[in-house]
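Q: I have 418 residues here and want to know how they pack in 3D. Can you give me a structure?
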Amino acid sequence: MSRLLSCLFVSVVVLAAGLSAADWPQFRGPAGDGRATARNLPTEWNETKNVAWKAEIPGRGWSSPSLFQNRLYLTTAVPAEAGSVSGPLSLRALCVDAATGRIVWNVEVFEEPADAPRIHNKNSHASPTALVEKGRIYVHFGHQGTACLDLAGKTIWKNDKIKYAPVHGNGGSPVLEGGLLIFNCDGGSGPFVVALDARTGEEKWRFDRETDSPKLFAFCTPTVITAGGKRQLITPGAGVVNALNPGTGEEIWRVTYDGYSVIPKPAFGHGLVFLSTGYDSPTVMAIRPDGHGDVTDTHIAWESKPGAPHTPSLLLEGDELYMVSDRGVAVCLDAQTGEQHWQERVGGDYSASPILADGKLFLQSEKGPAVVLRPGKTFEKLADTGFSEPTLASYAVGDNCLFIRTERHLYRVQQELE
């Protein structure tokens, strides 16, 4: 630990000199795809090995940590009245010093009433991941509201007027595109997608999602792509994925499918959009995004069911598409054809999305253990590792470290010096 503390001291000096660490400012990282340029990441860790620091985080929340200029941002929900188990909740944003684990500030953003709709037992009241850009932090609590804070935790704006009937609580995170903060509102009725002016919080457009799905709810984070030289917002919901003009909310194309409670964030590459269709029996689809209108019968390049996830997002690296199912089956497919390279059971149940960095594929299970794989067309496990504390949150990645949120703590995992 003394060697590791010395390393941290050097890191702080470097940061003070203006050489800031790599940022991970939103769900799934800088490009929203789960890939990082970090180096020298550990392959093994536990409560005492390769842990630079461990910080207790108050309340409960499954939002992933976001990293910006050596500060971590996350959300949580704590009882508004001390000791209460059924009263209102204080929905809060926190800032943590990435070098030390010290909580820099902890502020209330909204108060959730005691009679708010119930959530799924695996969910939390603070599940969407904070988004940081240009000195602003955007925090989203689903139907309870959305807010923008400055880096000191001071509120710039709040919007609690975007109402819908949630099922199982909130889940999807917002994305920023062209000065708009965009997120899905797929509840029990009248699902829609909405864009807010990122400067003011004012609603700029709303897209009413039309679907024949008997169940309408979903929890997906949109993905923004460039196809044919134009930007598209890929927004899966129950029974349909819509591609929208992110500036206006106008539909470009759509594909219908059987599925609801869609959670995995889509991936994009090789001129294909990759998504998983949700419950009850997910299918991974590859869709060509160059169509208009309903392209269900013309633009699906391939489909695959083995190992398709209900919850973890997809990850594209080179020519390979990686995924892990909720029940612990990891799969590697050829991204262009859908041909399976390998399928292996890795053990455990999974909600966190996989990340790829330092030539390693990291999979985090719900009960705490993690699996590290070597990416490629042949299955190769590098390590079984991880903590004993449950987690459903995905990692944030720094220059040479992982930030892992568990049920009660936030860890900085970093290779100890030899």
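Q: Anything worth noting?
A: Confidence is low (pLDDT under 50) at residues 1-20. The helical segments are 2-16.
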